Amino acid sequence: MTLTAEEKEVLYLLKTDPAHERYFFTNAKSLKWFYPLKAAHLFAPEAIRFDEKGNAYFWPVLDYLLKVSEQVKDDPQYAPELISIIRSLVRYSSEVKAIRNYHIWWYCIRFLNNLPPSTIRENLPIADSKKDGEVEYGFKSLLLAATDPSTGGSVLSQSDIGDKLLVKFLNEDTTLVYADEILESMLSIRGKGKPIGSFGEDDVVLLWDRHWVLQSIQKHKKEIGTKCSVKSVLGIADKLKAALEYSHHKSLADMSAGADVYQLELSRIANDLPGGEISFRPNSFVLTIRQYADQHLKDAGEDAWAQFSLKAEREVKKTPVQAADEKAFIEVASAALPEQLMAIDSAERKDKLSKLYKALRVDYSQIWSRSLADTSEHIHDAEHALTSILRDVLLEMCALNPTSAKQVLERFLTTDYYFVIFKRFVLLCMDKHWSTFGDIFTRFIEVLPDALDAECEVELHDLLLHHNGNFSKSITDHLSRLIADVPIYYVQKGDKYVAYWKFKWLSPLKDNPVFRADFDRAKEIVSPKNGAPYEPERQTTRGGFVRDYSPLTSEEILKMPNVDLIKYLNEFVGADTWGSFEDGLADTLQAAAKENPSKFTGELALFIDAPYLYVRHIIAGLRDAWKSNIGLDWESCLRFFHSYLGQGKEILLKKAFEAQGEDSGEGKYIWVIDDVVDLISEGTRDDKHAFDPKYLAEAEKIFDLIMPLLKGEEKAERDALTYVFNTTAGKTVKAFVDLSLRRARVIKQKETHWGMLKFERYFDIGIDAYIWFGDLLPQFIFIDKEYAEKKRVDFEAFPPETHKWQMFLRDTSLVPTSTRTSILRCVRII
Hints:
By secondary structure, this protein is α+β, with helices and mostly antiparallel strands. It is 57% helix and 6% strand. Strand 5 and strand 6 form a beta hairpin. The longest helix has 20 residues, at 728-747. The chain is globular and about 95 Å long.
């Protein structure tokens, strides 16, 4: 398609003066521009600009390319071109200069969401390859660039990949490998910071945002369970296994030989993977033997923390150990012990080494997840998240793809998956789908001969209760022997404890004639309260090594009278490492407010003196409820905001600084204001889901209370939109514009002098208003055209190097006066 002379002039302006780019690419959509722009090298990543810190500014050409991707359905020739541009961005970021700007990578994902799966498969291979000595980057490298926070990835990319791109690939059999790759990336795990081998708490975390991962899996678990391969589901299990190995990567034991005291440390050997991905070499360990002064160990006593902090007097030996099982480990480790320790009694030595080995194979899952079937637990770390994900996907696979599911369950019974949680998954699936997988139970009790004492209590109890009528004679005989084989601990405690052990495991079997008489005898000795059979504890123990546990569940919060809840919030003190934490309680409070907002809105005034952290999470929960189409009492909400923000600047800032500390950014980030304006913005942005117009005036008054609290900056030190989407001033300005637009649409009459009387004040706060004015210029024209035109003229008078002018354009170019009028002309032409 041939360009007119005037259009060629625009193209010339774009090549010679970057100041035109923003407006041109925002408005251009015709495909006639594509090849001329490509020929002018305007699609080359070398055209991206960077700030002095090396962060990339937004690349305006992406706005146009996104519109091209939306037209690919009618003009498929442009799809390979777009993929080529994406690959060039990955190449440039990997080889030339890292492109740290999440909007750029998000646009790449949006392009792919608009392209046919077959085109992606043909033009964007999974893996990188080499051609003519140069690397051609594939889909896997794009995923890393778009999602890894260290390379500029963000939740915007993650949410679009998990919500749209994943299901696109799942719906096509020929692109399932791409879905597998997304799952692999989505569930990548990292340590938070401490290196392997250092002591102290270091949570395992998902590389992707946990919220979006869980939401995506929950939304598409049926498709994943049906379509994904056995390898992919085992990959989820491998992530969980690696997370557990990371949490239990070291064990200790002491041995004494005369006056000499030794401490043995067994640690896993980590694989050296790119990006800090967690993985360990199978069956590979390092055995370190240290000698301590006897007095130091006596001082430490049984205190595990003190033992870890002890410094060795002398490292005796450090040797690699390869052992596939406990017997092999004891044999190899014994040979590595110093001569003094070989003099120890053989049985004692083997017992110490056995405990040292077994300590690395315990997952404590019965503490942090009492029941795998419980979907209501608060998910606060990677282990919980991966457990939840594996459960949901595996149960869907059991129902919809049983052949593949059986392969997974059989693998879980091998030594490859030695943590007991994988045996619990087998029990859960057998219980839910006995007719399909019941035949695995015989193998289960062969593989786990100590099943009744193997921390599988809840899942095994449920299976015995629900399916004992279907057991074969060989299974009932086997269970009878297991129940009769009472652990030595109970035997040593006496007959009543022996009876309790039997009562515990005979309770779910009491309706089976084979076990009825034995149950009655055990019950008579135990004399349980109310004569009820044994029921396992299903609620997860709160405490342990994990962080962000809540002392209350959402259900408990919703049942508690608000007067009692406020008293509890004011008196609660976050416990130490072993207990509950304020963050966990705040998260649960937010979930409760989302689930039942009327519980809070009915008596919001009572919460005005509640701790700052809890107030902001309640407001965030109300926002989440509205976003989920749950109705709100807006009158109560706005009245509370008036009261809370009306306490005065000194009081509010004191609360914010005390609660947020360094996270307040010296006043630029005030969380409770963020939550208030976010909720108002959600209530005005969409006319189809907005609060009653009669509350608009009251909502507007809240911004008058917020104004004295805002603190801005003269310059945005990073990408402009990134900046205003994160600062309290930026969020407030955007929410006020949303509110004003809603009012203008409802009243259908322009408000006189809106700009000068109500918006102008935001320009005095900082750069945020300049950025939003440039980004939302059409909206400002809609609200107050006279004011918008006047401000545009005012900006014309700014010197070209003025940061405010640059933020208005969201471009770092110096804009000569002679080109400013041609920018507007350029807009008219396109």
